[in-house]
Amino acid sequence: MMSMNEELQSTNEELSTVNDELKTKVDQLTVANSDLRNFFESTDLAVVVLDRNLRIRSYTEAARAIFPLQPSDRGRLLADVSTRLATTDYLDGAAQVAGGGAAMQQRVTTRDGGRTLSLRILPYRTQGDGIDGATLVLTDITDALSLERELAAERERLDLAIKAGGIGVWEYRGGTGEIFLDETGRHLFGFSPQDTADQVHQVFDRIIPEDRTGRRAGAGRGDGRARRFRDDVPAGPEWQGRWIKGFGRVVTSSAPHRMVGVSIDVTAEYAIAETRELMLREMNHRVKNLFAIISGIVSAASRSHDDVTEMADDVRERIATLGRAHSLASPAGEQQAIELAALVEATIAPYRGQSTITIDGPPLLVDRRCLSPLALILHEWATNSVKYGALAQPSGELAVGWTLADGKLRLDWSETGGQVPDDTGAKGFGTLLVQTSSRQLGAELERKSLDGRFLLSLTLPETSIIEDGGYRVDGPYVSVEDVLAHLDGDKPELACAILDVRLRDGEVFPAAERLHEAGVPLIFHSGHADEHALQSRYPGAAVCGKPCSPSLLRRTLSMAVSGPAEGDRATG
């Protein structure tokens, strides 16, 4: 009897222990259920939990905005519940995941297209890590996508503005010396697509040597100072390159610190400032020279006149001629091409009668863009000759001549009987003016003294000569559209047309047909066209292959027009 009581007591104690453990588990389950209920009620996510048969187990309050669920819908097939989504593809995805497939994510929209949601379908895992259903999580990303589109549009506008403004963007990391340049920045610094430019020293190497002092400190300050950078033009005494201004700001919120900035090409602004300064100095220089020239004119007139009235008339005429020569170097309005002989004559005319002057050279016109610098050079040479050279002496002789060879113009200025200048002295502003004007022309300048003669030679490139042998040129035109528009307008009679086969917007043949029908002789200047085919299509047409020397082109032009009358035009 005692043994049975002891066993009952032991059993009661075990049951009490089990009850305590069960109570603990119930409490834990209650807490878990409370946590789950609070999560479901507090979250803004639309969550629907399904069993392996896609029956509804539970859902969040936010899910009711997508599916009109009621508490009685638990245990109901999700397929039987209406939805605001545009498609029911989510059912196939849920079935696939509940059957053991991988989790998936996709975008879905509402039927009215007003909202876009991100749908994630996750496997519902049991405590033993088995899959017993699927969980659908829907997140409204409409506002995020709208913001993304706005940011993309803003970024596109910014990119377009940066590209349209020719602005280069860069980022510099001082700790490592790394620099990152965008496409425009690489172009500004003269890097080709194949060049490596990821270290700051590679960019600094593009700065001309005399402008490198303090560049690292300037990069650290981001002070926006303009600096010159070497492009693809070799550095040297006559360096011509690109001016770049950079603006940067240090970003202290990053570690390590970095500098972000932009670079812009300010070459045009510096060229304008340089030209303005040069013109101001040239004006002062010319005014001073004009006083010296007028003084020389008065002195020369006093030696050759006994009558005051005649002397006054002579001086007045010479000063007026001097004014006309001055206007050639400082034209008002748009410049036009001018005969080189007329330019030389206008420059020297004020000094005729003081010395022996000869002018000789073939008839040709000079490109209007070259007129001003060439007039400045001739005016400076004449001024120096009046002050120190042949034109300062009654016995002095001045010979000005020009020749054409290999498409280049060589202008020779020869003085005899005057003072030979000393080249060892300091360079004055007049010398600087001649050098600057020569550089603008792309010309080669040579000066030397030989047997008491002072010689100046200026060799100009082919681009300076736009017309030769009496022809006047219309063009060049770089597109078929431009040629056809020119032919449709009022135009003088054309003596000949020189045509490249391939223009910017296609082959030249539509324009060639119009010209051929109008009876205009054609010269095709091409390196790849079939000469026989062109002459069959356009009887009488000439073909000059590329490369073609200027002399050959001139001979072909002369043969094509058979000696044009004065005023005829050639177009190209």
Automatic annotation (TrEMBL):
Q: Which residues form a coiled coil?
A: 1-32
Q: What SUPFAM superfamilies does the entry give?
A: ATPase domain of HSP90 chaperone/DNA topoisomerase II/histidine kinase (SSF55874), CheY-like (SSF52172), PYP-like sensor domain (PAS domain) (SSF55785)
- InterPro entries linked to this entry: CheY-like_superfamily, HATPase_C_sf, PAS-like_dom_sf, Sig_transdc_His_kinase_HWE
Instruction: Name the Enzyme Commission number(s) assigned to this protein.
Output: 2.7.13.3
Residue limits of the Signal transduction histidine kinase HWE region domain? Answer: 282-363
Q: SMART domains attached here?
A: HWE_HK
Q: Which organism is it from?
A: Rhynchospora breviuscula
What domain of life does the native source organism fall in? Eukaryota
Name used for this protein in its record: histidine kinase
State any single GO MF term: protein histidine kinase activity
Please list the reactions this protein catalyses: ATP + protein L-histidine = ADP + protein N-phospho-L-histidine
Q: Which UniProt keywords apply?
A: ATP-binding, Coiled coil, Kinase, Nucleotide-binding, Phosphoprotein, Transferase
